[in-house]
Design goal:
The complex is a heterotrimer.
Chain A (H helix, E strand, L loop, with lengths): L1 E14 L2 E14 L3 E5 L6 H8 L7 E10 L2 E2 L5 H7 L4 E4 L13 H12 L4 H14 L16 H13 L5 E5 L7 H18 L2 E6 L2 H7 L2 E6 L2 E7 H6 L4 H9 L5 H7 L26 H5 L4 E3 L5 E3 L4
Helix pairs in contact in A: 3-4, 5-6, 9-10
Chain B lengths: L1 H35 L4 H5 L6 H10 L6 H14 L12 H36 L4 H15 L2 H15 L22 H7 L3 H38 L2 H8 L4 H39 L4 H10 L3 H29 L1 H4 L1
Helix pairs in contact in B: 1-4, 1-13, 5-6, 5-9, 5-11, 6-9, 7-9, 7-11, 8-9, 9-11, 10-11, 11-12, 11-13, 12-13
Chain C lengths: L2 H9 L1 H21 L1 H4 L30 H37 L1 H16 L2 H12 L3 H10 L2 H16 L2 H8 L4 H38 L10 H8 L9 H28 L5
Classes of the chains: A alpha/beta, B mainly alpha, C mainly alpha.
The structure holds adenosine-5'-triphosphate (ATP) and magnesium ion.
């Protein structure tokens, strides 16, 4: 059975400027034990998609339609309290910026113990033991357990966030650009840690990133997002060898393989469309090499090409 | 551990050193206002028609015939020696007169502070939590009214309502004339408790309620606004979102994450509001006939008791400096980022 | 700023409150300016109808000398508001000038001036005003002067902050390179950029001035009795309000509240709109 199944989800921000259609008809599923990479340019709605799964879309965002099934449970039909109990315990999330993700006036132990005691009825001593164990796994020395967030480096803070996410053995972790605020060396180490712990704990992972390099390195399957739509989903190698959507093709060329100059040359011209007034037809129309008349007026349907290779383009 | 406390000690010492120039500036300011501004303090005490001889004699008694810098130096020396001169009317030592009135103001200010903190923090927090509902706007208006309102008028309205209309609380004074409290610390409530004088204690506390609400509501305006906007800001912080993603309960998020982080700046605000509280207390004491520093100041102005007026204002400056220092130290103590 | 932006501001809560403040201010100004034509009675004429409760004849009742309170409050708006405006205005040039000098020169002068201003700011404003009023004596001009002393630091702070933030900006740098003198840079380039913020502070200070004037007059240190001022009216009412004549203090107090609320909402609205977070 699928662990997570998102069906035709629409999440809009009803802002003062107008309605921002950040996630606009997304369907996606995740198998047990799998790592799914969600990749796309900044502002295409990746974070919004991730937050929807935890029902944490901030005001003025609203889930307008669609369904999200977690282990067969319809998440959108649960009460607030029921969802709260799932958060951290079943589904955990790791955010982009570890520097601001910890409460500055609570020390590390307080953070972890609080999370444990929120979900489990054990005494405080056991909770502290568990805290020390998990911190050991992410490589934070025991003697720093009483230190405050500002006393740690960015990389360490992100490892603490990983510890917080793993703490209660959730089945699914959503990692939203977990390494993009870290420098390259620490990025690699953190990703490796995450990969190893994922194996050890038998987790499923949704890895959100704008970095194609990272996504090919880490994921089993990849979903490409563009302007609120998912435009292509395929197995890792399949997507790399046989990208179908013109946008994916352009992106793969843009992956920095040799030098930054080459990357620049291959970069896709133009900007993604505004999500306030998305174009009627294909959202990639304005930047597409293969654009035809129909692309301008008609939104492409999703087509399944080969085994589990889904694409949203009039070419297929 | 020891390095931590020595860091704190260093911080405190450096703060104390910073307070000294502030105090000097305030004392100089007072000197300029009372001696250098046009207007001769002598006429404060004797009328201009009193005759040359008496005027000159008074001028000499007050030391106002000496060169201005000499007056300045002896004024500063006096303050630092703890000598504020003698009342021109009662001939009592100014310090000892102030000593009788200051505790009463401190008591009122403390009660007012509690009322203000309670009203401001609870309304501000709730308004931030419900910022999307009507309560958010209502609270913005309420808090603005609180600090743009004439305090003395609000006190009078409370008197009309609770003392005249409903007759539940006394209107003025700090103690029924049939009762008395033996003076030990000078704080009437505390003294009544120490001496086990329960009737006086109850009567005194009942009389403190309206003035404390008056002063407290006035001060609550700022605290309310600051709490409101800080909690609102904190609720949008990434660490709050991360805590929600861990399933932390909303109540815990509101108090432990949003409010606690917001309170640190609110404490600084309390320090800045101390000055407003002293201003407010002058008016509140006048309305409720409370014999504190404010009433003393107003009375001594009308009795034209120049040394006493000067002494009271100097004591206000001392108080401001001390409270600024205390707030700085508390601030350092609660914020882990400074504590190191 | 175009129509669209103004509309957007007016849709926010702050914008609405600012608009409400503006409406209050315009109404009060009209009342104050046309006071002689709209008062139903002579505000200082004593009549035998003393201490009358509000009625159709006397909407706000009468005071202890039988004077019509509504007329006194309408007339009092002139003195209360103009004293506060004067107080907020007199201190403006000094505060702005010191703020510009301090921010522009920096270094030790800046440190010393900031310290002095912070200390004055930390001192209770009413007590400072009381001290000045005590020495200068009662009177409209003296009250305005007493009120003005407490505002110098507010203008100083906002100007200095502005100067520091724009000092480094390119156009000032360019002017300096072109050999403009310090004084002309201060006057021509920096001052216009701070004008909006200073105006906001001016409005908030006027609100505060109304309160200080009212406080001084209430204590008997402000506007002397023959002139109708809201604070003085409440002072007169002190002897009567506890004997059941509630209207004698209630209405002047509401007038004070309304006026200071108007200036505060308006000034704070401008401050919000100008605040960097908003831009
Ligand atoms: N609170 C909000 N109000 C209005 N619009 C919003 C809000 N939050 C996000 N958006 C808009 O929704 C769209 C999707 O935002 P989202 O943060 O999901 O994108 P993202 O793909 O995660 O981008 P990034 O790579 O920058 O994190 C963006 O166009 C953004 O401007
Ligand atoms: Mg994002």
């Amino acid at each position: 059975m699928k662990l997570l199944d998102i069906k035709n989800l629409r999440v809009y921000y009803f802002s003062e400027e107008g309605v921002v259609k950040a996630v606009d008809g997304v369907s996606l599923s995740l198998n047990k034990g799998e790592t799914l990479g969600v990749v796309g340019e900044s502002g295409c709605g990746k974070s919004t998609l991730g937050l929807s799964v935890l029902r944490l879309v901030p005001y003025p965002g609203k889930m307008v339609s669609g369904k999200i099934f977690y282990n067969g449970i319809d998440l959108l039909s649960l009460s607030d309290e029921e969802v709260r109990k799932l958060r951290g315990k079943e589904i955990a999330m790791i955010f982009q910026n570890p520097d601001v993700s910890l409460n500055p006036i609570m020390n590390i132990k307080e953070h972890l113990v609080e999370a444990i005691l929120t979900h489990e009825e054990i005494d405080e001593r056991e909770a502290v033991e568990k805290t020390e164990e998990i911190l050991g796994k992410v490589g934070i020395p025991k003697n720093r357990i009483n230190d405050y967030p500002h006393q740690f480096s960015g990389g360490m803070k992100q490892r603490i966030m990983i510890a917080l996410a793993l703490l209660l053995n959730p089945k699914l972790i959503i990692a939203d650009e977990p390494t993009s605020s870290l420098d390259v060396l620490i990025q690699a180490k953190t990703l490796e840690l995450l990969r190893n712990l994922k194996e050890e704990y038998g987790l499923s992972l949704i890895l959100i990133t704008h970095d194609f390099g990272v996504v090919f390195e880490e994921s089993d399957r990849i979903a490409v997002m563009y302007a609120g739509h998912i435009i292509e989903i395929a197995k890792n190698t399949e997507l790399y060898d046989k990208p179908l959507h013109p946008y994916t093709q352009a992106l793969i060329k843009a992956v920095p393989t040799v030098t930054p100059e080459e990357q620049k040359l291959n970069y896709i011209l133009g900007m993604p469309p505004s999500l306030l007034t998305p174009p009627k037809g294909c959202r990639f129309y304005a930047r597409c090499k293969y654009a035809r008349e129909i692309c301008k007026f008609k939104e492409p349907k999703t087509a399944t090409v080969g085994r589990e290779h889904i694409v949203k383009c009039h070419l297929y | 551990m020891s390095s931590k406390s020595s860091g704190l000690l260093f911080y405190i010492v450096s703060r104390i050193l910073l307070i000294i120039p502030m105090l000097l500036i305030l004392l100089t300011l007072i000197f300029i206002i009372l001696r250098v501004l046009p207007g001769d303090p002598v006429y404060f005490i004797v009328s201009p028609q009193a005759g040359e001889h008496i005027i000159e004699q008074t001028r000499h008694e007050l030391g106002l015939d000496r060169p201005i810098w000499e007056q300045y130096v002896s004024y500063l020396m006096g303050v630092f020696r703890g000598d504020l001169g003698k009342s021109y009317i009662t001939k009592d030592n100014v310090w000892s007169i102030i000593g009788r009135h200051l505790p009463i103001t401190i008591e009122l200010a403390t009660c007012g502070l509690f009322v203000a903190a309670f009203l401001g923090i609870s309304f501000g927090t709730f308004a931030a939590y419900k910022s999307k509902s009507w309560f958010g706007v209502f609270n913005t208006i309420l808090s603005t009214i609180a600090y743009t309102m004439p305090v003395f008028w609000f006190g009078m309205i409370l008197q009309i309502l609770f003392a005249i209309q409903f007759r539940v609380l006394p209107a003025t004074g700090i103690l029924d004339t049939s009762l008395s409290i033996t003076r030990i610390t000078g704080l009437p409530a505390l003294d009544a408790l120490i001496t086990g004088n329960m009737r006086a204690f109850v009567d005194h506390v009942a009389r403190l309620i309206l003035p404390s609400i008056t002063l407290g509501f006035f001060i609550s305006g700022n605290i309310n606004r600051m709490t409101h906007s800080n909690v609102l800001k904190a609720l949008n912080e990434d660490y709050v979102r991360a805590a929600r993603a861990r399933g932390i309960k909303e109540r815990v998020i509101l108090f432990k994450y949003a409010l606690k982080n917001s309170l640190i700046p609110v404490i600084t605000l309390l320090g800045m509001n101390f000055a407003r509280m002293l201003s407010g207390s002058v008016l509140t004491e006048t309305v409720f006939s409370i014999p504190g520093m404010g009433s003393l100041l107003v009375n001594s102005i009308f009795r034209r008791d120049y040394p006493l007026v000067q002494g009271i204002i100097v004591v206000y400056a001392l108080l401001i400096s001390i409270v600024t220092l205390i707030i700085d130290i508390i601030y350092a103590y609660i914020d882990p980022r400074i504590r190191l | 700023m175009n129509i669209e932006e103004i509309r957007k501001i007016l849709r926010t809560n702050e914008g609405k409150l600012m608009f409400a403040g503006l409406v209050i201010l315009v109404t009060l100004s009209v009342i104050a300016i046309f006071a002689p034509y709209i008062i139903p009675y002579d505000p200082s004429k004593t009549t035998p109808d003393i201490l009358q409760p509000p009625s159709l004849k006397h909407l706000f009742g009468t005071d202890n000398l039988g004077r019509d309170l509504l007329s006194r409050i309408i007339y009092g708006s002139r003195i209360s508001i103009s004293t506060a405006l004067l107080g907020a205005l007199v201190s403006l040039p000094l505060g702005v000038l010191l703020g510009e000098i301090s921010g522009y020169l920096g270094g030790k002068i800046d440190k010393a001036l900031s310290m002095i201003m912070d200390s004055i700011y930390a001192f209770p404003s009413l007590i400072l005003a009381i001290s000045v009023a005590t020495i200068l004596g009662a009177g409209i001009l003296n009250t305005a002067l007493a009120v003005s002393t407490v505002f110098v630091p507010t203008y100083f702070r906002v100007t200095r902050g502005h100067v520091l933030s724009i000092k480094s900006k390119e156009f000032v740098e360019a002017a300096r390179l072109m050999g403009a003198s310090k004084v002309s840079i201060l006057l021509k380039d920096i001052f216009p950029n701070t004008i909006a913020s200073i105006f906001a502070i001016f409005s908030v200070n006027t609100a505060w001035g109304i309160l200080i004037e009212a406080g001084l007059s209430f204590l008997g240190l402000g506007i002397p009795p023959p002139h109708p001022s809201w604070g003085t009216d409440i002072r007169i009412g002190r002897l009567y309000y506890l004997s059941g004549y509630w209207w004698i203090i209630t209405f002047p107090g509401l007038a004070i509240l309304l006026a200071s609320l108007g200036f505060t909402f308006f000034g704070q609205g401008i401050q919000r709109i100008l605040s960097p977070e908003r831009r």
